């Protein structure tokens, strides 16, 4: 039929310049709603209305898709490399120094922007919570004695110290903590981190 409006093509999206961003936007929403374990690559492809092969074209697997969905300015695996191999009784100083090295590297501006952009956003907070549990706390608590529930609690308590340190020193810049040397920060903060890792969590009777 000549002169008519061409028929609308239906079906899955083909590859294009915006396909990758569409996959990421869809993945962010699904990871935030259902968590890492509750989200599959096939589900992401279905929600984005494209062939699953397109998702695999841009991302090696679900771990890579999840990591890039969060848009972290640094790779937690690199920052905490080797921490899980240390004796739990000697792990706290390495954790604190790793945090300080990261935040005092060229990634600092990106980290501050990430933290500020996450606070107040339910979707970004959910993604961050999932990432922290899977990537960071699992390394910090590897090999700790006690039940899995106790290790999870210890990891969460360590996170309160580390997150508080990051916010007060680098985002709020509260003095005198903001100007303290790295060695001084380690001396003051590492004992608290170590207590949460291996110390008693209940007061003695």
UniProtKB/TrEMBL annotation:
<feature type="domain" description="HTH tetR-type">
    <location>
        <begin position="17"/>
        <end position="77"/>
    </location>
</feature>
<protein>
    <submittedName>
        <fullName>AcrR family transcriptional regulator</fullName>
    </submittedName>
</protein>
<dbReference type="InterPro" id="IPR001647">
    <property type="entry name" value="HTH_TetR"/>
</dbReference>
<dbReference type="InterPro" id="IPR036271">
    <property type="entry name" value="Tet_transcr_reg_TetR-rel_C_sf"/>
</dbReference>
<dbReference type="Pfam" id="PF00440">
    <property type="entry name" value="TetR_N"/>
</dbReference>
<feature type="DNA-binding region" description="H-T-H motif">
    <location>
        <begin position="40"/>
        <end position="59"/>
    </location>
</feature>
<dbReference type="GO" id="GO:0000976">
    <property type="term" value="F:transcription cis-regulatory region binding"/>
</dbReference>
<dbReference type="InterPro" id="IPR050109">
    <property type="entry name" value="HTH-type_TetR-like_transc_reg"/>
</dbReference>
<dbReference type="GO" id="GO:0003700">
    <property type="term" value="F:DNA-binding transcription factor activity"/>
</dbReference>
<keyword id="KW-0238">DNA-binding</keyword>
<dbReference type="InterPro" id="IPR041678">
    <property type="entry name" value="TetR_C_16"/>
</dbReference>
<dbReference type="Pfam" id="PF17920">
    <property type="entry name" value="TetR_C_16"/>
</dbReference>
<dbReference type="InterPro" id="IPR009057">
    <property type="entry name" value="Homeodomain-like_sf"/>
</dbReference>
